[in-house]
Design a protein that fits this description.
Length: 409
């Protein structure tokens, strides 16, 4: 896909992807997330993401929210372990309005005390609501177990105690230490000339003081697999298996993405869905995921079932893993897996907001963006031998940690 990049003197990059659509999508991504927090500041990155919508030097909350919604646009944001992202979808005439609002909320928010207090209450409710969803909460508990003592293990939302302690001073210091201008990308996919994007982006972001990145992230140490069971006031059992995996820079990343998609990824035809759900009817949901990060990654498998069926489900899962390890994919099977994965990626291009966010992240992580043909070539280059090596490492139950939530009683 065609794209253009312009770097401002302060290091902020402007990414433009041409599109013939009447609808545009834009995002501003900062390479800063929950792993960059100090332990006592857990939840701070997410707290900031909430607060930037509350008040700026020239707008109150209603004015911020209505700046785009009043013209039918959509504005939202999210925080991950390594990123903070604000994104919007809007009709083409409102590009200037959108980019100006990005500048205002990210760099001119005032964080008044009364808004801090209100938003703490909102997040405390969010934490309580999240804990009431065991199928979600178990992932955070699992990551805390696998990355014990490391920032990657901490919940993005923080805890009730840590959020209650957060202050305006914490916010200012965190943004100064982590909102690095050379790790910020403003990206737009829309029907504009690149020069227009550069002109608007420069107008609003060129005067931001330069704040260059210095790598202070520490990679997690390797640890032995851990097995834990917890009783919870729930009606169904929930389980997560997994292990630390390859980083975004690892040569086997593409192979693991392919294996993940084959074993338990998108669609109903994954190996585990066909066996555990369709053949035996044990679990309504069974899925795997692989999230590569800057210096590590994590591979997980989740399923929910009745508590008396957990052991049966685990037995069947390990049986399938053993089968995949001992009987490597044939060339025909591997090519079928590749065709499925490539097709899903191609269809994913239709999700334009997801596409522009993904491209912006790639620019931050790799200083380049691979076109679809390059992505497809990387998938096609995965060999049977490489897939066998990855399968033997990732799907070996001796390497897997496991966490299970059981109903009380």
């Amino acid at each position: 896909m065609e794209y253009n990049v312009h770097t401002l003197p302060n290091g902020i990059r402007l990414l433009h992807v041409p599109s013939a659509s009447a609808i545009s999508h834009a995002c501003i991504i900062v390479n800063s997330g929950s792993r960059d927090e100090k332990e006592e500041q857990s939840g701070l990155a997410h707290f900031i993401e909430h607060l930037i919508f509350k008040r700026t030097e020239k707008r109150n909350t209603n004015q911020i929210l209505n700046r785009l919604e009043s013209v039918g646009a959509d504005l939202n944001a999210y925080t991950t372990k390594e990123y903070t992202c604000i994104h919007a979808s809007f009709l083409n005439p409102y590009l200037d309005r959108t980019i100006e609002l990005f500048n205002d909320i990210v760099f001119h928010s005032t964080f008044p005390e009364e808004e801090l207090d209100k938003e703490k209450s909102v997040i405390l409710d969010e934490i309580s609501s999240y804990l009431d969803q065991p199928e979600e909460a178990i992932y955070d508990d699992f990551e805390d177990m696998v990355f014990a003592g490391h920032p990657l293990g901490r919940n993005i939302l923080g805890t009730a105690e840590s959020v209650s302690r957060l202050s305006k001073k914490d916010i200012r210091e965190f943004m100064a230490e982590n909102y690095h201008t050379d790790k910020i990308v403003i990206a737009v996919i829309g029907n504009y000339a690149f020069q227009k994007m550069v002109k608007i982006g420069s107008r609003y972001f060129e005067d931001i003081p330069q704040n260059l990145h210095a790598n202070t992230r520490l990679a997690p140490l390797s640890a032995k697999p851990v097995i834990k069971n917890h009783q919870k006031p729930i009606t169904q059992a929930h389980a997560v298996l997994g292990m630390p995996a390859y980083s975004i820079y690892h040569p086997k990343k593409t192979g693991l993405l392919l294996l993940n998609n084959l074993v338990g990824g998108t669609g109903m035809s994954s190996v585990l869905n066909l066996q555990i759900r369709e053949k035996y009817g044990i679990a309504y949901t069974i899925e795997t995921s692989y999230s590569p990060l800057s210096d590590t990654g994590i591979f997980t498998l989740y399923f929910g079932t009745d508590k008396e069926k957990v052991n049966k489900a685990l037995s069947l899962i390990y049986k399938e893993f053993k089968k995949l390890r001992e009987h490597p994919l044939t060339e025909v099977q591997l090519q079928k897996a590749k065709n499925k994965f490539i097709g899903q990626i191609a269809l994913g291009e239709e999700n334009r907001i997801g596409l522009i966010i993904s491209m912006a992240k790639s620019l931050i992580d790799h200083d380049k963006i691979d076109d679809l043909q390059t992505v497809f070539s990387k998938i096609q280059d995965v060999s049977r031998m490489e897939m066998a090596d990855i399968t033997n490492e990732i799907l070996d139950e001796r390497n897997l940690s496991a966490l299970t939530f059981y109903p009380l009683g």
